Each structure stands twice: as C-alpha cells, then as structure tokens.
Write a sequence for this structure.
C-alpha cells in the first residue's frame, strides 16, 4: 500500500524545522519496520500576514509503502506529538495515495496562493474519508498537512529532502558522481538540462554543494547546467537560488 503522510507547523522559532522532523519521522518508520520511505518533498505555501507561520510556511510530505495503515497511523501520531515543539500547531494527514482526489490536489494548489480556513480542511477531509488531525496548539497545521498530500499527489510541486533513505545527496560523500550512480544508487529518476534528459551513464555531475531534485511529472528531477569547458565533469547541479525559484 502506498500512502502519503503530510505534516505541517511542527516547530517554533528556536527548534529544528518541519523538514528536519519529517526526516526524523522517516528514519523512525524505517527503523521500526513499519514501511519504506521512498521520498520526502518540501512544499512552499502562501506567505501572508493573515497566516501564522514560524519561518517560511512550508509543509512536508512523506511517500511511504507500508503493509498496515492501522499500525503506521498511531505510530506517526505519537511520534509527531513527541517532536512537536512548544507553541507549535502540528497538523498531520495520512491517506492512501490512490484515494487523493482532484479536489484535494486543488486544495494544495490553492494553499500556495490564497488564505484557506481550517473548517474547510476538516470538511474536505471528512468528505473524502481522509485522516486529518491537529495535534498541538490551535491545530492550524491541518491546512498545510492536507495541502502537502495534495501537492505531492499532483506531482509537480516542491523539492526532495529525502530520497530512498538518502537524506541529502551530500551523504554520498562525493563531490562528483556519475549519472549511473545518481540514478541507480541515489534514487534520481531524471537528470535534466533545459529540456534535455542526460542519459550517458558515464557522464559526471558536480553536486555543487546543494543538490536538491525537484518533483516534476511525479518524478525526482535533478536540474543541471552544462559545463562544456570543464575537464573534470560534464554537468553541474543548478544553483540553489534557481532550484528554489522553480520548486516553490
């Protein structure tokens, strides 16, 4: 069974952020043999004076294969209750991926550009029989948690902060990797320069200190730039600012 777990607003100004907590949750799920985490995506939501948020108003979504939804749900709930920082407004959403409707995908898209209401999130979750709970504080994190699963199912928003247990491509402990290694070992689906897919397995890619694949067409896509005159590698991961701009 493939499920999505959306979390939002787990932190305060002095604690580690939701991205960190999502990676901790992924590690806990795998170490307790509750499932396999294929990826975690970060999704940027609307920044507006009427929306309370800690730093950047981003939510996270875990893409997990598990055998028993009845086992992973209480485990995840308890984990998020324990890691939710003082003053946080933790929201948690758990749903089978195939059951996410176009209405929930639209909720995620809307959460990037307009102010949404908690009661509407509850109504949509009830309508589609989606597990959505507020765990701490005002519970306003349910808005972003529901948005996270919608955006992940939509397949064209955000960037990966975990792929197949690789928390960060720097964990590979190499500055330069072959295309083959990135695709077969690091969980990258596509390496792309402009509209071109890089397929030569022996081509080398410089990770450039900040390698974050984006979610595009339901795949993990590593954006690169051409290094025509470089003798050490043919490609370099696109700049941090560019990747943030196209994935937010």
């Amino acid at each position: 069974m493939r499920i999505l777990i959306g979390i939002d607003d787990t932190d305060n100004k002095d604690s580690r952020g939701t991205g960190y907590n999502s990676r901790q949750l992924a590690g806990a799920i795998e170490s307790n043999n509750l499932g396999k985490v294929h990826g975690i995506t970060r999704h940027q939501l609307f920044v507006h004076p009427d929306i309370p948020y800690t730093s950047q108003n981003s939510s996270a979504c875990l893409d997990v294969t598990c055998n028993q939804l009845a086992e992973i749900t209480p485990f995840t709930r308890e984990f998020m209750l324990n890691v939710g920082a003082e003053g946080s407004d933790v929201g948690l959403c758990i749903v089978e991926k195939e059951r996410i409707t176009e209405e929930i995908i639209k909720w995620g898209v809307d959460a990037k550009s307009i102010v949404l209401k908690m009661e509407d999130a509850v109504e949509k979750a009830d309508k589609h029989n989606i597990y959505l709970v507020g765990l701490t504080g005002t519970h306003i994190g349910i808005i972003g948690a529901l948005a996270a699963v919608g955006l992940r199912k939509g397949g064209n928003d955000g960037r990966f902060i975990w792929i197949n247990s690789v928390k960060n491509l720097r964990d590979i402990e190499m500055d330069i990797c072959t295309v083959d290694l990135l695709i077969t070992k690091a969980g990258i689906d596509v390496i792309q320069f402009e509209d071109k897919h890089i397929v030569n397995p022996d081509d080398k890619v410089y990770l450039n200190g900040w390698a974050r694949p984006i979610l595009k067409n339901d795949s993990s896509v590593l954006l690169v730039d051409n290094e025509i005159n470089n003798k050490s590698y043919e490609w370099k991961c696109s700049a941090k600012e560019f990747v943030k701009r196209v994935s937010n």
Notes: The chain has two domains: 2-159, 168-247. Residues 69-83 form the longest helix (15 residues). DSSP finds seven helices and 13 strands in the chain. The mean pLDDT is 91.
